[in-house]
Amino acid sequence: MRIDAHQHFWTYNTKDYGWIEDERIQRDFGPQDLKPLLEQHHIDGCVLVQVNQTEEETQHFHQIALENEIVKAVVGWTDLFSPALEERLQEYKKLPKVKGFRHIVQGEPVGFMKNPEFVKGVKLLGKYGFTYDILIYPTQMKDAVHLVRECPDVTFILDHLAKPYIREQKVQPWANYMKELGSFPNLYCKVSGMVTEAAKLWRREDFQIYMDFALASFGMERLMYGSDWPVCLSAADYSTQLALVEGNFNRHEGIFGLNAIKAYGIY
């Protein structure tokens, strides 16, 4: 089974999606838009990832997953600081397509992931068999090392290679932290989101060193492909961004499906 491990849906409005600056993606995107693209590229399903930090979106995405066979898993949002978190997770265990959670840590200050209450919340995800997607910038990678070290029983997925500075072709200290993060066996990494971090007129060669470091750090067994569609459309169409990753990893069955299935418990 081939899996796109990272994509989004939204009903566009300026209040909830003010961060979308590119007019090309200032519109609605749903499963009816993605399904033909997956079929065209012989991809069997996808992982639908949170956009807004609301419980309502998580519930809505789960319903979409129930109604659309292409959505194999949902990474939602819940308040990891809530004193009622354990009760909320018990309720989410009743939703079979909700496999994990994410917080938009890239929008938080450095040090956010070291907060003991946040760490406590993430540990509870492991207790209930949920994953946690790490969405950060390189300046927060040291904090990610702390979080993953503190939570050995949680399956983590690092989104978008921690958003390296591809536009500037800056590699360090990102590469050193990738090596350290890759040493944790409970952490996977998504080869995703690269084109939107690149210069407007990017070249295939711009990404090579970052994919090489990702492979050296995580190996074929803990990397997974994600399109970051429709966000990627601001820099490349679906076919182009997919070809970029396929050309580098030779359509490896782990990267293009099996690793995501294992990490998220897709069946």
In short:
This protein has a single domain (3-264), classed as TIM Barrel (Alpha-Beta Barrel), CATH 3.20.20.140. Helix content is 37%, strand content 14%. The protein has 10 helices and 8 strands.
Strand content: 5-15%
Classify the secondary structure makeup into a structural class: alpha/beta
What CATH architecture would you give? Alpha-Beta Barrel
Q: Can you identify the CATH class?
A: Alpha Beta
- Give the overall shape: globular
Largest pleated sheet: 8 strands, parallel
- The number of helical runs is 10
- What's the count of strands? 8
* Rg of Cα set: 17 Å
GO molecular function: hydrolase activity
Pfam family, one: Amidohydro_2
Family: Belongs to the metallo-dependent hydrolases superfamily.
Protein name: Amidohydrolase 2
Topology, element by element:
Elements: E1 3-7, H1 31-40, E2 45-49, H2 55-67, E3 71-76, H3 85-92, E4 98-103, H4 116-127, E5 131-134, H5 141-150, E6 156-158, H6 174-182, E7 187-191, H7 194-197, H8 208-218, E8 223-225, H9 238-249, H10 254-264
Parallel strand pairs: 1-2, 2-3, 3-4, 4-5, 5-6, 6-7, 7-8
Description:
There is one protein chain. The longest helix has 13 residues, at 55-67. The protein has helices at residues 31-40, 55-67, 85-92, 116-127, 141-150, 174-182, 194-197, 208-218, 238-249, 254-264, and strands spanning 3-7, 45-49, 71-76, 98-103, 131-134, 156-158, 187-191, 223-225. The relative contact order is 0.14. The chain has a single domain (3-264), classed as TIM Barrel (Alpha-Beta Barrel). Helix 6 links the parallel strand 6 and strand 7. With 267 residues, the chain is α/β, with parallel strands linked by helices. It has an 8-stranded parallel β-sheet, sandwiched between helices. It contains 10 helices and 8 strands. The radius of gyration is 17 Å and the shape is globular. Residues 3-266 form the Amidohydrolase-related domain. InterPro entries: Amidohydro-rel, Metal_Hydrolase, Metallo-dep_Lactonases. Belongs to the metallo-dependent hydrolases superfamily.
